[in-house]
């Protein structure tokens, strides 16, 4: 006996979140209680040393839980997202180490002004940006990752440049530049994360946007916290420092909440859509950049007495212009590639339709051949018994005639049973009557298949919405439409085809017309026309062809409704 191998995912309890329920409850209590606790403990802090000491303690208060949650999630998350969680865990571990190091050295009297915190912040932000970009890539379907990266960069530049024009020199030249520059770097990273969350939210289904919405809230909290830190530092760390500390605590607490309620099953992104639906038809980023340009120009004009403002504004606007040009070129290439995918899919669909239609046509020929063989056999049997009766009547051999009749009855019984079984075999699995919608779909598919190799004419299809046909009548109507459509493809050179199937005065009318070259008179003896006439005659109807040079051709079949067979199961019996 071979036991099935259980994977790690199979051994995990069923839970839609990356964090177990017990840890999730504890995490919510922790986040909800520590944010107000930070405000109560450090509301009145005053001065640089007190504020930085409280800020580092707050960082340690959240860094360790964030690291633990990220490590747990990196094990429980979907396999494709685990590397993202590992990057987030690495960034959290780096932040924990940095906060502990700063706190320990500051307690020993070490001046953090000489520290490498800005460099550390840059490294941590680069790791976060890489993780965010990877998770966006997994929700982007067939779109180019480079176009998304440029969009995010442009949006970040447009959002941060006005703030840099106002605070830039003060941030860089501040006595605690290690702190202000680090906060500025986190501001840039928060803006980038906010735009990533917005992009993911726009690309996922409406019922799967909870995690992305939490990411948006997290990004906003990070932006506000970074702005609060910069403003508090530039103001000289005045009392009370509680509001800025609570903003930072709320931002870190929101990271815990985001981790707690992230789902194990990743949200479905653009990969759920066909290639044509993934084409970028509009760009919110470009609109945002167009709005940001006059804002940047206005701020630069208001602060034009500072040379560095003009230079920074020029660099930002030039960068946006260059990135926009590159984005346009890459987006055009992406659109071309996506439409090639659409064309390839259309070719494959046409080939599949062609195979299906060929198979259906071959099936009809096999059915016709089988019925023809059965009819010939029955005719032969009847001819045999007729000849036997004639011979018996002339010679008086009634016993021979009786035996011949018995053999023929037996043969007729076998043939009738075979026809019954064959009828049941070829009958559709769905015995319901075909509605107008069920008839329109195969007609559209057939027209698409017939004209797949060339210019496809416009199809005007009308099927009586109240029309209901049984499967045998549907087969005859479909065959008439197919034969007429094939004639249009072969001879008409039409730009439009109209198909109408409707009931008028107890008559089912099947009409196929085109606007092609037409003919001087209807052809005589054509195989397609003869086949349509035979099909219409099977139901007691008639076929008419109207045509003229340059006027197109119209094929109209009229089938009496009282001649239509009912959609009941055929029952064959043998009379002995």
UniProtKB/TrEMBL annotation:
**Could you list the residue ranges that cross the membrane?**
21-45, 51-73, 85-104, 116-136, 145-165, 177-200, 212-232, 244-262, 283-302, 308-330
Cited SUPFAM superfamilies: ATPase domain of HSP90 chaperone/DNA topoisomerase II/histidine kinase (SSF55874)
What EC number(s) are associated with this protein in UniProt? 2.7.13.3
Q: Which reaction does it catalyse?
A: ATP + protein L-histidine = ADP + protein N-phospho-L-histidine
Q: Which organism is it from?
A: Actinomarinicola tropica
Against SMART domains, the record matches this protein to: HATPase_c
Q: Which UniProt keywords apply?
A: Kinase, Membrane, Transferase, Transmembrane, Transmembrane helix, Two-component regulatory system
Which GO molecular function annotations are given, in alphabetical order? protein histidine kinase activity
**What region holds the Histidine kinase/HSP90-like ATPase domain?**
472-563
Q: Which residues form a coiled coil?
A: none
Q: What is this protein called?
A: histidine kinase
**What are its GO biological-process terms?**
phosphorelay signal transduction system
């Amino acid at each position: 006996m071979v036991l099935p191998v259980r994977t790690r995912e199979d051994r995990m309890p069923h839970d839609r979140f990356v964090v177990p329920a017990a840890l999730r409850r504890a995490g919510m209590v922790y986040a909800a209680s520590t944010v107000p606790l930070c405000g109560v403990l450090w509301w009145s802090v005053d001065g640089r040393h007190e504020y930085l000491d409280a800020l580092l303690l707050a960082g340690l208060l959240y860094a360790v839980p964030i690291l633990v949650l990220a490590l747990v999630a990196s094990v429980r998350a979907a396999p494709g997202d685990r590397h993202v969680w590992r990057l987030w865990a690495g960034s959290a571990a780096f932040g924990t180490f940095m906060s502990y190091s700063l706190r320990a050295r500051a307690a020993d009297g070490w001046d953090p002004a000489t520290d490498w915190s800005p460099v550390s912040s840059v490294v941590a932000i680069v790791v976060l940006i890489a993780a965010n970009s990877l998770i966006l890539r997994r929700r982007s379907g067939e779109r180019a990752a480079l176009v998304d990266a440029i969009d995010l960069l442009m949006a970040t530049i447009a959002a941060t440049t006005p703030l840099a024009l106002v605070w830039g020199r003060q941030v860089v030249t501040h006595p605690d530049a290690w702190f202000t520059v680090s906060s500025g770097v986190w501001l840039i990273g928060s803006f980038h994360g906010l735009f990533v969350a917005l992009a993911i939210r726009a690309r996922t289904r409406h019922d799967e946007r909870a995690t992305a919405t939490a990411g948006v809230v997290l990004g906003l909290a990070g932006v506000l916290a970074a702005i609060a830190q910069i403003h508090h530092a530039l103001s000289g760390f005045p009392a009370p420092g509680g509001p800025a500390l609570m903003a930072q605590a709320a931002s870190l607490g929101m990271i815990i909440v985001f981790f707690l309620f992230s789902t194990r099953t990743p949200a479905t992104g653009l990969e759920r859509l066909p290639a044509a639906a993934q084409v970028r038809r509009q760009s919110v980023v470009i609109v945002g950049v167009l709005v940001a340009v006059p804002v940047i120009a206005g701020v630069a004009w208001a602060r034009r007495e500072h040379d560095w403002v003009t230079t920074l504004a020029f660099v930002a606007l030039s960068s946006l212009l260059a990135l926009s040009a590159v984005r346009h070129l890459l987006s055009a290439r992406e659109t071309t590639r996506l439409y090639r995918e659409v064309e390839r899919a259309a070719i494959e669909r046409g080939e599949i339709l062609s195979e299906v239609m060929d198979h259906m046509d071959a099936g009809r020929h096999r059915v016709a051949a089988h019925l023809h063989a059965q009819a010939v056999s029955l005719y032969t049997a009847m001819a045999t018994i007729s000849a036997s009766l004639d011979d018996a009547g002339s010679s008086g051999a009634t016993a021979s005639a009786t035996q011949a009749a018995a053999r023929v009855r037996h043969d007729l019984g076998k043939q009738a049973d075979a026809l019954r079984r064959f009828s049941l075999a070829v009958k559709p699995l769905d015995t319901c009557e075909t509605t107008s919608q069920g008839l329109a779909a195969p007609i559209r598919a057939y027209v698409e298949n017939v004209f797949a190799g060339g210019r496809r004419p416009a199809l005007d299809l009308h099927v009586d919405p109240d029309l209901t046909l049984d499967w045998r009548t549907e087969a005859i109507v479909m065959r008439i439409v197919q034969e007429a459509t094939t004639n249009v493809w072969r001879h008409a050179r039409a730009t439009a085809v109209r198909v109408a199937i409707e009931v008028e005065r107890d008559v089912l009318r099947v009409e196929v017309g085109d606007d092609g070259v037409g003919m001087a008179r209807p052809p005589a003896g054509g195989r397609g026309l003869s086949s349509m006439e035979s099909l219409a005659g099977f139901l007691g109807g008639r076929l008419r062809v109207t045509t003229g040079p340059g006027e197109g051709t119209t094929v109209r079949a009229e089938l009496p409704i009282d001649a239509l067979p009912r959609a009941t199961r055929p029952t064959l019996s043998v009379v002995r």
